[in-house]
């Protein structure tokens, strides 16, 4: 396979082998299944059963339960029996790390086991070892000896298996040869998959999770490519972004990673890992899946109308930003800009700008500027009657711009046909709005080729929107046209979750492939006013511009294209968790949210936490009841700190490492 999917222009699901998990069929074009994982202590049968039921009632089609040792694996029988007694036959999955014995017990009891190839046989020591080819082959033999018994049990009992690679918990052996890379993740799974295939065991699902959507997307794409080359077929894919966090950030990160792959037809089951109660993950999963069920219905058997791509001018397996001209502060080496859309506002006052990062002080007549402050303000037909902060410029309709007094501050927005006919342009910066499906969009290509003042604002009226915009950017690349591109996405969905998913997928998928020098999100605020999400209000959208501004910056942060705030990598928690993860995450967030660019991991257990913190700068990890171990990178710096003072100690650690700044008023 040259790429990683059947088509970059038509919506087509990737053909995968069919796998049976209890009575549930997965892969081979079956519906995309949704699942979650319990956070209760596996030894607490009733609590685990009741939480599983809440997840099943919310729509989970599989429920995963941690089995850290033999006793938890054995207790899965009690959990399964109690669920059956209450009328629930939903397949259960045992989550295994480090304990083959527990896996072998669980595989005889429940429908599926998940193993992590990074730690199934190997204990991670973070050692760099140079293996000769012979030593490497001996290591593979050692894995075969330890893994084959589980494969045989699964085969005998009809149990399914997920080989679930996590970026960050790759074995020292894989790290030594491939590094912490998407290729290392793929090879880690392939070693186990080859052993299973040799035993003619195929009831397998694969995953390539990372807390960084960029790494995650590349790894899944590469996995499909490698499987097709080596076996001529694909096993089903379980999609997920690990340690995505909570609230809107968790939803945005998950939607970018999972949605980018679903857009291209990859993915047979999904889990959205949020640091929230697991039943709240399911509506987000369903919203994600729904987009593609309705996409299939909208397109039907028709073709999407997006022309085939003759040549892919970029690698989908590694990140390279598209080369663009520098036009004012857009494109070139500038971080992607954010456009705040105030077209529908009746008036615009000083205080309205607070929602987009500019706080006005009446006494000093000055603005203070936040890290997440928009770069451009689209006013439609309005001209402002006050002086703007230095870093904020205005985009207005071309007819309004002609009358605007300050041409250093105001720039015109043309529709594509308007641009083709006009005779009045800005000498420095002209925005052109382009529906990539309109015939004028093709005509425009020749006109803008030599115009180094043009920034295209691309949007699509095609139901297969993201691929149609991608197709247009590919045209630009293939024709050597280097004008910057702002990704414009309008969402009229009726819930906050749906809007977040729509924005994140349609812009995030392109940003992950290096396309996009800015982002311009629009919505219909009335549709989502004051909504509660997943049973709790994590965001009130009385202030819609703030919602849009936060979402724009969060998408850029999640795609790692513009860092404007602290990055949290928090695990979803499970039966191994040693403290209240949701409460602790909120506490740490409240004192560190002003530390722009610092990556803080909050992990529930010392067994998996350190491995899965990925590229966090600092780690706060549960290491015993009431005990926290603090990390700087992968290095332990304070062991078994009393949890009552652990947040204070984390702040001290940040200070000792010059990662702390005091909050400004
Ligand atoms: S890191 Fe969190 S989710 Fe992962 S095993 Fe530990 S407690 Fe469970």
UniProtKB/TrEMBL annotation:
Keywords: 4Fe-4S, Iron, Iron-sulfur, Isoprene biosynthesis, Metal-binding, Oxidoreductase. Binds 1 [4Fe-4S] cluster. It catalyses: (2E)-4-hydroxy-3-methylbut-2-enyl diphosphate + oxidized [flavodoxin] + H2O + 2 H(+) = 2-C-methyl-D-erythritol 2,4-cyclic diphosphate + reduced [flavodoxin]; (2E)-4-hydroxy-3-methylbut-2-enyl diphosphate + 2 oxidized [2Fe-2S]-[ferredoxin] + H2O = 2-C-methyl-D-erythritol 2,4-cyclic diphosphate + 2 reduced [2Fe-2S]-[ferredoxin] + H(+). GO terms for molecular function: 4 iron, 4 sulfur cluster binding; 4-hydroxy-3-methylbut-2-en-1-yl diphosphate synthase activity (ferredoxin); 4-hydroxy-3-methylbut-2-enyl-diphosphate synthase activity (flavodoxin); iron ion binding. [4Fe-4S] cluster binds at residues 571, 574, 605, 612. Its EC number is 1.17.7.3. It holds the Pfam family GcpE. Residues 567-655 form the IspG C-terminal domain. It is an enzyme of class 1 (oxidoreductase). The keyword Metal-binding applies. Gene3D superfamilies: Dihydropteroate synthase-like, Sulfite Reductase Hemoprotein, domain 1. Residues 16-285 form the IspG TIM-barrel domain. It comes from the Bacteria. Pathway: Isoprenoid biosynthesis; isopentenyl diphosphate biosynthesis via DXP pathway; isopentenyl diphosphate from 1-deoxy-D-xylulose 5-phosphate: step 5/6. The keyword Membrane does not apply. Its cofactor is [4Fe-4S] cluster. GO terms for biological process: isopentenyl diphosphate biosynthetic process, methylerythritol 4-phosphate pathway; terpenoid biosynthetic process. PANTHER family: 4-HYDROXY-3-METHYLBUT-2-EN-1-YL DIPHOSPHATE SYNTHASE, 4-HYDROXY-3-METHYLBUT-2-EN-1-YL DIPHOSPHATE SYNTHASE (FERREDOXIN), CHLOROPLASTIC. Converts 2C-methyl-D-erythritol 2,4-cyclodiphosphate (ME-2,4cPP) into 1-hydroxy-2-methyl-2-(E)-butenyl 4-diphosphate. Belongs to the IspG family. This is 4-hydroxy-3-methylbut-2-en-1-yl diphosphate synthase (flavodoxin). The lineage of its organism: Bacteria, Pseudomonadati, Bacteroidota, Chitinophagia, Chitinophagales.
